[in-house]
């Protein structure tokens, strides 16, 4: 079989280059957009994904980690009674007002009071053990590298949170927050920083199970008791998803992503189909000659569709290479970008869908390949 | 001998048009291009249709080859009535039985001469080896054995038209249609093309129908139909053809 589609694509690559660029850039835009959104909004579940707790206990109706309310400390004993639970620890969230030594004005901070012990569950994946150990000191805090300028401090310096003095004993990385700055301290320090006398329990209790795969079942089992005041439970995965979805949709960012994805698709498809149509029109007399010789329209359509496929595949290849380079660059600059398999698949589907739509549009111009027009 | 037996396989003319009419309507204006034309074309001959520009030569060719529908009348080709065939069946008929050569060469810029010829054969259900054998033989027959690997941009106009002829010839069609095959070429190249078409008709028993207003070609045809205003004015066998047909035992 003479590979007409591929040979034409190679020989007349200049004619197909705009289509490949359109497809590639549409893919690249989509990839970066998804990676950025996942990176930015993924940070809203960092408290969960950066910790090794399997089950979270918090106030009923909590929509994201940052909007919890205190629960009774007595719930801890209820949770510990469950034989599946290996360890429980409190987690205190305090919204704070940071005043640094530099001229920064007030900065809104999210104080995370965690168990500084070596076995602590909170931030066990995000905080190196040596840094965690330093939190044992009273009024010691760890701040994220990305927020140093914003907070106007450096390691060893002091500042105040809600009017209480704190000292920066360490600098973490990868703990960027959305809408504020994460500050880590011990549970005792967090209690001192909280100036609301009504809050006298933990914001959350987090539990580690002997068998993490049972998180869903255990969370369901622990729910429903009312003897200790209102509380509910989630598996860590569910709570992380809840947090990300809350931010995506209640901030309108999710709708924005979908909207932009639609625009990218439309613009990409418009440019790609126009260039493919031009390429088909450029060969329309040759196609008409083949049809005169009896080569069916279906076979000619396959040629056009195959060209669209290659345009899509090559555009995708270019987008992947460039996208990975850009993502690496972003990572090195502390820009929060995350790419997971479903997101990458979504990009591939978008790009190949775009190529297919363009191919179908270009196929329509084969109608002009009527062999009778060759006889004039 | 061989040409005679080939042409005897079909009883009566290979192509027969019976009272065909064709009009084009554009806006308010209606142009009657063909009006009740009846015509038979014999196998194994090079038949030339000549006439002034716009008299309906190309339209007649398009109708006889099944590329265009008639308004009224019938066209019989190799025992089938073309008007009865649906577009699919017409495509299949053309695939199996017809070859075309157009004024423009219509070659794919990306393909070598060999691939141009091989491409339609791929769609005829031939094996790869058979398709390649036929492509090679056809290109040799038009004198391009040494040019098979070249792309159209590396070929002269006459060579390109010979590739187009080889593309039609490799299908081993019973009917070969050519519309102004020489008008884009100089005298020498035009001469060579008409010689090849003539040889194809005689060597393969192919029905070759050629449209041209080039008077130099008239002497090379077996039969010349002069057309004007959609009618056949004269139908004569040329001297060259008469002497040649005497050589062929019938
Ligand atoms: N698709 C069409 N629509 C309208 N009119 C047409 C169409 N095709 C042909 N005609 C008209 O039919 C007439 C005959 O056209 P045709 O192409 O058969 O002429 P021709 O004899 O081949 O001329 P030439 O020698 O210049 O090629 C012309 O007047 C032309 O304008
Ligand atoms: Mg014409």
Write a short abstract of this structure.
The complex is a heterodimer of chains A (376) and B (250). Chain A has 376 residues and is an alpha+beta fold.
Question: Could you describe the 3D structure shown?
Answer:
The complex is a heterodimer of chains A (376) and B (250). Chain A is of the alpha+beta class and 376 residues long. Chain A has two domains: 4-43 and 252-374, no CATH class; 46-250, no CATH class. Chain A has helices at residues 4-11, 13-42, 46-49, 75-81, 129-134, 148-151, 187-193, 215-222, 236-250, 253-282, 284-292, 297-332, 341-364; strands at 55-58, 85-99, 106-114, 140-144, 158-161, 164-172, 181-186, 204-209, 232-235. Chain A has a six-stranded mixed barrel. The longest helix of chain A has 36 residues, at 297-332. The radius of gyration of chain A is 29 Å and the shape is elongated. In chain B, 36% of the residues lie in helices and 26% in strands. In chain B, the strands form two sheets. Chain B has a six-stranded mixed beta sheet with strand order 6-7-8-3-9-10. In chain B, strands 2-1-4-5 form a four-stranded antiparallel beta sheet, with helices on one face. Chain B contains eight helices and ten strands. Chain B has helices at residues 2-8, 57-64, 87-97, 113-122, 128-141, 157-169, 187-204, 239-247, and strands at residues 15-26, 29-41, 46-50, 72-77, 80-81, 98-101, 175-179, 207-211, 223-228, 231-237. By secondary structure, chain B is of the alpha/beta class. The relative contact order of chain B is 0.19. Chains A and B meet through α1 and α11 of A and α2, α3, β6 and α4 of B. Bound molecules: adenosine-5'-triphosphate (ATP) and magnesium ion. Magnesium ion binds next to α2 of chain B. Adenosine-5'-triphosphate binds at residues 24, 26, 31, 33, 53-59, 213 of chain B.
């Amino acid at each position: 079989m003479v590979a007409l589609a591929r040979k034409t694509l190679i020989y007349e690559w200049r004619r197909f280059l705009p289509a490949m660029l359109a497809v590639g850039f549409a893919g690249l835009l989509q990839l970066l957009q998804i990676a950025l959104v996942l990176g930015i909004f993924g940070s809203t579940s960092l408290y969960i994904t950066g910790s090794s707790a399997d089950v979270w206990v918090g106030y009923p109706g909590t929509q994201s980690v940052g909007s919890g309310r205190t629960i009774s400390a007595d719930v801890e004993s209820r949770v510990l009674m469950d034989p599946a639970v290996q360890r429980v620890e409190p987690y205190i969230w305090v919204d704070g007002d940071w005043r640094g030594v530099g001229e920064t004005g007030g900065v809104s901070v999210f104080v995370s009071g965690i168990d500084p012990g070596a076995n602590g569950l909170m931030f066990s994946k995000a905080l190196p053990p040596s840094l965690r150990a330093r939190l044992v000191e009273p009024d010691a805090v760890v701040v994220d590298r990305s927020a140093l300028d914003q907070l106007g401090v450096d390691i060893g310096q002091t500042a105040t949170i809600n009017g209480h003095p704190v000292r920066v004993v360490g600098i973490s990385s990868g703990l960027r927050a959305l809408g504020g700055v994460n500050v880590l301290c011990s549970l005792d320090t967090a209690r001192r920083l909280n100036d609301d006398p009504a809050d006298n329990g933990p914001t959350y209790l987090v539990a580690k199970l002997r068998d993490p795969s049972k998180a869903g079942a255990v969370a369901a089992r622990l729910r429903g008791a009312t003897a200790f005041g209102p509380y509910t439970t989630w598996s860590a995965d569910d709570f992380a998803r809840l947090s990300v979805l809350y931010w995506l949709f209640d901030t309108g960012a999710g709708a924005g992503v979908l909207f932009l994805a639609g625009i990218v698709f439309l613009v990409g498809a418009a440019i790609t189909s126009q260039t493919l149509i031009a390429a088909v029109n450029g060969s329309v007399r040759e196609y008409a000659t083949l049809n005169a010789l009896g080569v069916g329209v279906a076979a000619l359509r396959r040629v056009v569709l195959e060209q669209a496929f290659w345009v899509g595949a090559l555009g995708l290849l270019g987008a992947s290479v460039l996208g990975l380079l850009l993502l690496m660059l972003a990572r090195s600059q502390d820009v929060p970008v995350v790419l997971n398999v479903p997101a990458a698949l979504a990009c591939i589907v978008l790009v190949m869908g775009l190529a297919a739509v363009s191919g179908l549009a270009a196929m329509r111009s084969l109608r002009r390949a009527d062999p009778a027009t060759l006889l004039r | 001998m061989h040409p005679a037996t080939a042409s005897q396989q079909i009883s009566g003319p290979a192509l027969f048009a019976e009272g065909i009419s064709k009009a084009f309507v554009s806006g308010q204006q209606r142009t009657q291009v063909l009006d009740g034309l009846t015509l038979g074309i014999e196998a194994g001959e090079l038949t030339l249709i000549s006439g002034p520009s716009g008299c309906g030569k190309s339209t007649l060719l398009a109708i006889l080859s099944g590329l265009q529908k008639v308004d009224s009348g019938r066209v019989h080709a190799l025992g089938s009535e073309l008007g009865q065939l649906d577009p699919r069946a017409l495509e299949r008929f053309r695939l199996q039985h017809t070859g075309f050569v157009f004024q423009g060469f219509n070659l794919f810029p990306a393909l070598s001469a060999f691939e141009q010829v091989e491409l339609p054969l791929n769609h005829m259900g031939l094996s790869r080896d058979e398709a390649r054998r036929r492509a090679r033989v056809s290109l040799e027959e038009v004198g391009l054995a040494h040019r098979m690997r070249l792309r159209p941009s590396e070929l002269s106009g006459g060579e390109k038209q010979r590739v187009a002829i080889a593309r039609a010839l490799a299908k081993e069609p019973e009917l070969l249609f050519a519309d102004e095959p020489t008008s884009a070429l100089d005298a020498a190249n035009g001469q060579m093309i008409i010689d090849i078409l003539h040889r194809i008709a005689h060597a393969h028993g192919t029905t070759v129908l050629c449209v041209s207003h080039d008077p130099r070609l008239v002497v090379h045809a077996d039969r010349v139909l002069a057309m004007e205003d959609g009618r056949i004015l004269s139908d004569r066998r040329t001297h060259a053809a008469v002497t040649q047909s005497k050589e062929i035992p019938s």
